[in-house]
Each structure stands twice: as structure tokens, then as C-alpha cells.
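Hey team,

Sharing the dCMP deaminase run so nobody has to redo it. Sequence (170 residues) first:
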Amino acid sequence: MTSRKDWDTYFMDIAYMASTRSQCSRRHVGAVLVQGKKLLGTAYNGAPMGIPDCLEAGCMLVEEIELKLQDGKEELVRKQRCIRTIHAEQNLLLFTDREDREGSTVYVTDQPCWTCANMLANSGITEIVYHRAYPKDSDKVIDLMTHRGMIFRCMEAYEPPHGVIMEVSN
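Structure output:
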């Protein structure tokens, strides 16, 4: 007899399954909205409906420069981001109702970027559970979640279902 999956694993599995719909060549991300044990929505990253995605038209990369304080010194950090893609968390917020989000949990394959973290912090969601770290924005996102009083946790020991994970490029 096989053991039953715990709820965190179950919902993260669904987030990874949603990520398989992504056509982004750099990162497949999936997200699910859960209220208690009830699944309310799924989403993945991709171009807007009816617009060619990254696999068809290529990534639309922009470079951002961020001033960071590192060991008491100011340091310029360059980051590339694709702006063709709507992130999974953004799609999840676009296609779910505010009432459903109040007090709910988001399971997302990857730690949210700064923009998505800002949006989630103001969405009514009280908990974010993720699997893979996103080092570009990690420290400031963790600070935001702490300041906002949101539960923000990483499922480090989690293993995605066989065949659904892609290698991440930065």
C-alpha cells in the first residue's frame, strides 16, 4: 500500500503540472490558488493570449540595473528579464476573484520575483509556498513578506513529479 501525499506535495505537484503549459524557453513556472484544501485556480507563465510566445518569437529581454548595498558598499547589479511573458502569479491574480484570494495560499514552483511578490502582498493571500529559489530578488522578497506578515516558505525537500521539471536558465 502506498502512502498518501500530504497537502503541500499534492498542491505543489499541481503547480508543476500547470507549468508544463508554459512556452517560455528560460523558465517554466506554475501557480495554484488554494483556500483550505480547495483548489480555486491554476496558472502558468506565458505571452498574452493570441500573442506569439517566446518559443515562436524569441524572448524579449531587457536589462535592469539595481543598486544594492553589499558589505557596506554600493554595488550595481545587472539583471536580465523577459518582458514578453506574463508571470504565473500575475496570471493567477488576473483569473481569480479577490473574494477567493482572501486568506488563501498560493503554491508556486519558483519563488516570486519582486514584482509578483508586491502584487501577491496586496492580493489578500496570506501564504506563499514555493519550491525553487529565485536568487535575483530573494533577499528583498523575503524582507517584504516578513514586513507584510505573510507566511512565506520554501519546500526544499520537495521532488516534482517525474518528467515535468525543466532546467532553469537565468
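Residues 7-19 form the longest helix (13 residues).

Ping me if you want the raw files.
A.
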